[in-house]
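Appendix C: a fully annotated inverse folding record. The material below is reproduced so that readers can follow the format used throughout the book. The structure is listed first as tokens, followed by the designed sequence.
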């Protein structure tokens, strides 16, 4: 959910979540067939075509590295079974590709979508705070690490240095952020009464979202169909 993975025109929030789930399930179901790799390649092309090119190509080297590394480990662990190593590569690559639609999904758009569909207010608020807090946490960790280097605390993995120079300052900063969020809710008179919330900028389904969903389902269904008959042989 970081800002780097954001795209100009993200897909409909629920479709993005469904796409992530479908890619993940498809990579597991079709890992034993060469259609599993083809399925991921087609989904990659589909995401690039619908505006997710930057996050897709950014995560590609990382996916290739860690998939290849772990597949190599499984290759030797399984007695040099190349087929098993290839299956693990498809599974690992599927996990990475499935993360892209969720990472590129703006938290506000997801919350607005769920609010418009009648999701309880406490759930949507908690989800918004949790999703928005991830980049904040990353920034706080970076600032604490920078303060450690400024003060000459370079041995990060030493228990005493990690506890006193990193963990305690980070926890204190997170507690202060939590207090600020609480005060913000109180000053804005936030209540959880059974009142229908208003969505000032609703998220609507567009023709682009429908086309993406249909192509996603078509690729999944056809790949699963051919993979099933290949395994049956």
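Designed amino acids, in order:
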């Amino acid at each position: 959910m970081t800002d780097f993975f954001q795209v100009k025109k993200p897909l409909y929030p629920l479709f993005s979540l469904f796409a992530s789930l479908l890619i993940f399930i498809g990579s597991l179901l079709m890992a034993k067939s060469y259609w599993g790799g083809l399925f991921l390649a087609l989904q990659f092309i589909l995401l690039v075509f619908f505006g997710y090119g930057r996050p897709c190509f950014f995560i590609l080297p990382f996916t290739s590295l860690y998939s290849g590394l772990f597949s190599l480990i499984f290759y030797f662990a399984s007695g040099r079974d190349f087929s098993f190593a290839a299956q693990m590569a498809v599974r690992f690559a599927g996990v990475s590709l499935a993360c892209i639609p969720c990472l590129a999904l703006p938290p506000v758009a997801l919350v607005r979508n769920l609010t418009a569909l009648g999701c309880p207010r406490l759930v949507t608020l908690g989800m918004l705070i949790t999703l928005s807090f991830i980049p904040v946490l990353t920034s706080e960790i970076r600032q604490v690490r920078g303060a450690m280097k400024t003060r000459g605390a370079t041995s990060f993995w030493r228990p005493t240095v990690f506890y006193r120079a990193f963990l305690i300052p980070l926890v204190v900063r997170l507690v202060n952020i939590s207090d600020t969020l609480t005060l913000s809710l109180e000053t804005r008179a936030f209540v959880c009464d059974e009142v229908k919330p208003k969505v000032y900028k609703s998220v609507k389904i567009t023709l682009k979202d429908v086309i993406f969903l249909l192509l996603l389902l078509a690729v999944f269904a056809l790949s699963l169909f051919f993979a099933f008959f290949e395994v049956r042989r």
